[in-house]
Design goal:
By secondary structure, this protein is of the alpha+beta class. The chain has 21 helices and 21 strands. The chain starts with 18 loop residues before the first strand and ends with a helix. The UvrABC repair system catalyzes the recognition and processing of DNA lesions. UvrC both incises the 5' and 3' sides of the lesion. The N-terminal half is responsible for the 3' incision and the C-terminal half is responsible for the 5' incision. One of its GO terms (cellular component) is cytoplasm.
Length: about 700
């Protein structure tokens, strides 16, 4: 690792102007490219105390051996130069989106004498009209098949076209009416080109006028009693409408926009783009990237804009680009986009209406894409095996941790403190063995003390079950719960089997808490790890490894170590530990929210002896809220049907003794309802559900 001070330029050497800079390693390879409005200020930020740098930035500057820069006149030029250098040098520390496929386009080759409709991938060619991109090639072919009935444009290859012209006989599509057969001169080259241009106009969104023209011609044919021609026109209209349905109408008819959404976690990010042309979603694409540099959502958006439009020209850049967050310097990027389009481009965040609703849909697609990417990565057996081996090597374990248990503490400002335990076997979640705990030994917020209690309780149960167990299985139990994270036989491919040797009950099912993990992971840093290790030592358990994963910096902490273990960013072991930690956090916070919701919906009437659901609801319906019921006299309470004087006295005494009830919660919307404003029906529904 290099010392950044060894190659730090003197402050006076760095110009205070826009520019692009490159960090190189000891071999001269470019490892990072960046741009700045002020090179002096930006580069100075890299040469501060290493402890104050983000871990990824710290790794970059200690890997680098030199830095150089190029001065430009404007931020727009800096943006263009940065993009070209990233494409040229492919720096390892820059965010680079990677396509999971080459997205297909619907292309019309207007540069040929007889234009052809086809599916095309790769670099765009001059003189070809493109529509898309589409998620799948079959989606293009379905659309084209419907439209060829109305626009019988050539779709055959050059070889097929030439052969048909030689033999004087068209191909099958010419016979069934899905090609106008220009190869045998059924129509002229000019007529065929006009047909191809009509096809392009329809695909570009100019559909309304064409459909109205077809409907008018259909009505005229019917009036002239040419029913066969009218029927054909009717079928043409149906086919075009079906083709239109494949691209849902989402915005105003003339809207051309690209919508970009980002879903991210600490390690990776997914970007989804919807291409809207003529008010319809004409295409969709997505990328996934490792976050190898410290980058915000705005930074991810800026990188996506560079990659998406870096090589596009003309009408490929729409009038409007909608994003979830604006880049730090939005003006130069907007100028750059406008320059590539040749006219003004609006870059903004949608605030209301249909565009905001569609952006929510794009965001859901991005989240699903990230989840799918992680699921594919986790379900691969080879990847899981490598992850477990990397964890064992990094933590100095004697064998791979086939069973990992992770613990997390959750609370809301010290209230409703709970803990979760999630289990991963062979790198897959075993949800049937998840457990949750309530903190019992003390009140208030103390994550370290809570962790000590939970670890102690879990392993006390393990020792108790171990002592009580008189029967041990030598093979996996037939009654064992199937793996909740993957196919039932996925774990069988790794040896030894973590189910082997597990204590079972009378029916052959594994006993709860009876099987120890090889590794305990806690959500937190050195204090939480020390508390977990202390709890195990107090129970005499020394064959279970302990580590902690700190969320902010993704560092792995070991007991009694002053410095954390830093796994490489590309490590599958780090990815697995993060996934285990995040699952424990999700499980804990779900339980904590459930407990809090029950507490908020509790009512002083619940503790009144002899007062059932019906009379509770009748009281609330009669008075409208607990506040009004608390202010009522005993005689007024007796007016409620079914409530006698003795019950009324008990209710009044209970309400007087209790503190004012917390706010009611509308279970339909999750909103808090003040007592004196709560509608009787809402409160009745709440109390009915609470029971």
């Amino acid at each position: 690792m290099a010392d950044p001070s060894s190659y730090r330029p003197k402050p006076g050497q760095i110009p205070d102007s826009p520019g692009v800079y490159k960090f190189r390693d000891e071999h001269g390879r470019v490892i990072y490219v960046g741009k700045a409005k002020s090179l002096r200020q930006r580069l100075a930020s890299y040469f501060q105390d290493l402890a104050g740098l983000h871990p990824r930035t710290r790794t970059m500057v200690t890997t680098a051996a030199s830095v150089e820069w190029t001065v430009v006149s404007t931020e727009v030029e800096a943006l263009q130069l940065e993009y070209s250098w990233i494409k040229e040098f492919d720096p390892r520390f820059n965010v680079k989106y990677r396509d999971d496929k080459s997205y297909p386009y619907l292309a019309v080759t207007l540069n040929e004498e007889f234009p052809r409709v086809q599916v095309m991938r790769g670099a765009k060619k001059k003189g070809v009209r493109y529509f898309g991109p589409y998620g799948h090639a079959w989606a293009i072919r379905e659309t084209v098949d419907l439209m060829l009935r109305v626009f019988p444009v050539r779709t055959c290859s050059a070889g097929v076209f030439k052969r048909s012209a030689q033999i004087g006989r068209p191909c099958l599509l010419g016979y069934i009416g899905k090609c106008s057969a220009p190869c045998v001169e059924r129509i002229s080259a000019q007529e065929h080109r006009e047909l191809a241009e009509e096809f392009c106009d329809f695909m570009a969104g100019r559909t309304g006028a064409y459909l109205r023209r077809l409907e008018r011609r259909m009505q005229e044919a019917a009036e002239e009693m040419e029913y066969e021609r009218a029927a054909r026109l009717r079928d043409d209209i149906v086919a075009l409408k079906r083709a239109m349905e494949k691209s849902a109408v989402v915005l105003a008819d003339a809207t051309d926009a690209d919508l970009i959404a980002v879903a991210e976690d600490e390690l990776e990010a997914a970007v989804q783009i919807f291409h809207v042309r003529g008010g319809r979603v004409r295409g969709q694409r997505g990328w996934v990237t490792d976050k190898v540099e410290a980058v915000s959502t705005a930074g991810l958006v800026e990188h996506a804009l560079q990659q998406l439009y870096g090589e596009e020209k003309g009408d490929a850049v729409p009038k409007e680009v909608l994003v979830p967050a604006l880049p730090e310097h939005v003006e130069p990027i907007q100028q750059w986009l406008s320059g590539r389009r040749g006219s003004q481009v609006s870059l903004r965040i949608p605030q209301r209406g249909d565009k905001k609703d569609l952006m929510a849909t794009v965001q859901r697609n991005a989240q699903q894409a990230l989840a799918l990417h992680k699921t594919k990565r986790a379900s691969d057996l080879t990847t899981r095996s490598r992850a477990l081996e990397e964890i064992a090597q990094a933590l100095g374990l004697d064998s791979v941790p086939l069973r990992i248990e992770c613990f997390d503490i959750s609370h809301l400002q010290g209230d409703d403190v709970v803990a979760s335990m999630v289990v991963f076997e062979d790198g897959l979640a075993r949800k049937s063995e998840y457990r949750r705990f309530q903190i019992k030994s003390f009140a208030g917020q103390d994550d370290v003390r809570s962790m000590h209690e939970v670890i102690g309780r879990r392993f006390k149960r393990y020792l108790q079950e171990k002592q009580k167990s008189g029967e041990w299985t030598e093979e996996p139990s037939a009654g064992a719960a199937p793996d909740a994270g993957g196919p039932p036989d996925a774990a069988a491919d790794l040896e030894p089997d973590p189910m082997a040797g597990r204590p079972v009950d009378e029916e052959g099912r594994p006993k709860r808490f009876a099987y120890p993990p090889q590794l305990v992971v806690v959500d937190g840093g050195a204090p939480q790890v020390a508390a977990a290790r202390r709890a195990l030592d107090e129970l005499g358990i020394d064959d279970v490894a302990v580590c902690g994963l700190a969320k902010r910096l993704e560092e792995v902490w070991l007991p009694e170590d002053d410095d954390p273990v830093v796994l490489p960013r590309s490590s599958e072991g780090l990815y697995l530990l993060q996934r285990v930690r995040d699952e424990a956090h999700r499980f804990a916070i779900t339980y904590q929210r459930t407990k809090r919701a029950k507490r908020l919906k509790a009512s002083p009437l619940d503790a009144v002896a002899g007062l059932g659901d019906s009379r509770r609801q009748a009281l609330l319906k009669h008075f409208g809220s607990l506040k009004r019921l608390r202010a009522a006299t005993i005689d007024e309470i007796c007016e409620v049907p079914g409530v006698g004087r003795k019950t009324a006295e008990t209710v009044a005494a209970a309400l007087a003794a209790a503190a004012p009830a917390g706010p009611a919660v509308n279970t339909a919307t999750g909103e808090i309802i003040e007592d004196d404003e709560a509608p009787p029906a809402a409160l009745s529904a709440e109390r009915g559900q609470d029971r």
